[in-house]
Amino acid sequence: MWQNAVGNDLALSKDAYKACLSRAKRALSSGTFPTTILGFIDEDIKTTLPSLHLFAPETGPMYEDLKDLLCAWVVARSDEGQGYVTGVAKIGAMLLLNMPAMQAFLVMRNLLERHCMRSFYGGYTSKDDVQAYYRIFDTLLADGMPKIYFNFKQHQVSPAAYLPDWILSLFLDHLPFEACARLWDVLLLEGDSFLYRAALAILAVLEPRLFFPDSRELLELLRGENKAALEVAKRDGRPLNGGKYEIYGVDEESLWERIDSMDEWWKESTWTRLIQRELPDL
């Protein structure tokens, strides 16, 4: 279903993964594969779905598959002058859990070519588009959850402080695995508008915790590093190696409750209008 939902607008052949992986293997064996990027890949994999123990470096049964996938992706990106982006290991891992590596490569390449994802993965070359996506998110937040919006404005916390971390890993760094699996089913079918709807729902779940007297504490909470919540989680014996927001009690049920409640004000027509206004060339 995921493969059909994402499609193959890039018209990649079924041998695309084999060709890119072959190039990566030759570069690795000859010592020409950039060591800096290898370091980024290894660090990214270390923090990928640690609670599943499937991708742990050297010991995880799916570690080599994920590293091969990421190396092949780097080769494909290098043809466009793009580099590695931390967070992509989570996306690769989620796909490998659901399909063979060849299919995972095709889906990942096409998924990350969707405009919003391509913008956030594009680095400096797409910074103007990323700024447009920030403005869109701010407008939606102001319309649907004005208290949170004005609180963030008061503390000078912009979407740039939290939205990239959510989007680059498609929430796998922050939400429980089961919640992400359900989000992905809808996200891959509906596209960027649901990506934003899910992000807004996260803030809705976190809302009771967002009103801190200073911006430092607010940013710590958004990073999943709130000391008080961590202490409570430790005291209650809750695992701390899952999604970062599990310490706040964010789970599939609470998240979907907020997504459903947004039917009262969320309109696809508003999303379309904002895209046309902020990204007229899209």
Automatic annotation (TrEMBL):
Cross-referenced SMART domains: TBC
The Rab-GAP TBC domain, residue ranges: 1-191
Recorded coiled-coil stretches: none
Species of provenance: Meripilus lineatus
Designated name of the protein: Rab-GAP TBC domain-containing protein
The organism's place on the tree of life at top rank: Eukaryota
Matching Pfam families: RabGAP-TBC
InterPro entries linked: Rab-GAP-TBC_dom, Rab-GAP_TBC_sf, Rab_GAP_TBC_domain
GO MF terms held by the record: GTPase activator activity; small GTPase binding
